[in-house]
Design brief:
- The chain is mainly α.
- It has one domain: Chloroperoxidase (Orthogonal Bundle).
- The protein is about 40% helix and about 5% strand.
- It contains ten helices and five strands, in the order H-E-H-H-E-H-H-E-H-H-H-E-E-H-H.
- The chain has a three-stranded antiparallel β-sheet with strand order 3-4-5, with no helix packed on it. A two-stranded antiparallel sheet has the order 1-2.
- Strand 4 and strand 5 (about 270) form a beta hairpin.
- Helix 5 packs antiparallel against helix 6 and helix 6 crosses helix 8.
- The longest helix is centred in the C-terminal third of the chain and has 21 residues, at about 305-325.
- The structure holds protoporphyrin IX containing FE (HEM) and magnesium ion (MG).
- The site of protoporphyrin IX containing FE (HEM) has 27 residues, from helix 1, helix 2, helix 3 and helix 6.
């Protein structure tokens, strides 16, 4: 049986809180699975997620609410999107990194059940602290890439912090760099949305909630990204943070440097795809996930597999319907 997604944190328990606490000691990852998301890697290292790096989607929702104070709807949107692309609907388990037998027997191909490291699903090009898959391992922290991240903070952020201005310039540079150098660049829905969201996440969720000024120090950034460790005495956001905070920030990044979704056909040959959903078209991106991306891996599911996909698609829609007036779509009928 698939558990329903967790409810929001109860009032009174959804506020400012020490989260690098005695109940959640940092332990090095050892030979456990880690992947392309600095936040989930850190939450696993502190035991907010199973330390082996294999989790149910509802555990991911709980972990990001408890550890970083994501709003319930936003947590569900991220977790169920990822789960539909990278998890095993039959066992309800997902790897936060590479593909593993720990998620159980796979449904029939073309299902991938690749874990979060699976390129071209949720993981995609132009990341800030990882290289593009064309050049090698896109899941592992890359110190050269991260040096650029810090350099942009030094150059564009208030007091050398990683803030929205640093995020804006870095996001633009990462796209230009991949257009020039990655012959297989893909920058279309749904990757465009994750790329822009992830650029601003650190300015919100990685900043200590007592300060909460949207300016991430280079020390704290390095602790999360390079060490996958919460800073000593780290407090999460003082209230749950969802779409309503993140979207205006990504909107600013877009208006600073607009782009059209597209793909490279060879280096420096970016073919725009204006018929695909734009970054601002949230419902279009939801529809694209439900009607194109998920059926790409599950073209004709039957029985328990179809039931599980429908249930998880329903959870995904539940998360978007709260903030956005999208119309629900049903790739496999009602
Ligand atoms: C990147 C999944 C929550 C911060 C990623 C990537 C995945 C992922 C698959 C790789 C994308 C790529 O760069 O190619 C998830 C899922 C979440 C989640 C399933 C479920 C709730 C969070 C939260 C934060 C966060 C709460 C808060 C700071 C980041 C950042 C990156 C990233 C900063 C970009 C890394 C880079 O560009 O090098 N995430 N994430 N994520 N995630 Fe998460
Ligand atoms: Mg990537």
């Amino acid at each position: 049986p698939i558990p329903n997604p967790p409810a929001p944190l109860p009032a009174g328990q959804n506020g400012l809180k020490l989260v690098n606490d005695a109940a959640h000691p940092f332990m090095p990852q050892g030979n456990h699975i880690r992947g392309p998301c600095p936040a989930l890697n850190t939450l696993a290292n502190h035991g907010y997620l199973p330390r082996d790096g294999v989790a149910r989607p509802d555990q991911i929702v709980t972990a990001v609410m408890e550890g970083l104070n994501l709003g319930n709807d936003f947590a569900k949107f991220l977790a169920y999107q990822a789960f539909l692309l990278n998890g095993n609907p039959l066992t309800n388990l997902m790897s936060i990194g590479m593909k593993t037998p720990l998620t159980g027997p796979d449904p029939p191909k073309p299902a991938l059940v690749g874990g979060l490291s699976q390129h071209g699903t949720f993981e995609g090009d132009t990341s800030m602290s990882r290289i593009d898959a064309f050049f090698g391992d896109a899941a592992t922290f890359n110190p050269t890439r991260f040096k650029d991240f810090l350099a942009f903070a030094t150059k564009f952020g208030v007091n050398g912090s990683y803030d929205v201005n640093a995020a804006s310039e870095l996001r633009f540079e990462r796209l230009q760099d991949s257009i020039e150098n990655n012959p297989q660049l893909v920058f279309t829905s749904p990757r465009i949305l994750s790329a822009y969201s992830e650029a601003v996440f650190p300015t919100v969720y990685f900043v200590d909630g007592r300060l909460n000024n949207r300016q991430l120090s280079q020390e704290a950034a390095s602790d999360f990204f390079a060490n996958q460790h919460m800073p000593e005495d780290f407090h999460r956001q003082p209230a749950p943070v969802s779409f309503e905070v993140i979207e205006p920030l990504t909107g600013k990044l877009f208006s600073d440097h607009p782009f059209v979704p597209g793909v490279n056909h060879g280096k420096n040959n970016y073919i725009e795809m204006p018929q695909t959903p734009a970054l601002s078209d949230f419902c279009g991106i939801y529809r694209d996930i439900a009607l194109r991306v998920v059926p790409g891996q599950y073209p004709n599911p039957t029985g328990a597999l179809r039931d599980a996909l429908n249930k998880n698609l329903g959870f995904l829609f539940g998360a978007v319907s709260f903030q956005h007036n999208c119309t629900q779509v049903f790739p496999y009928g009602k």
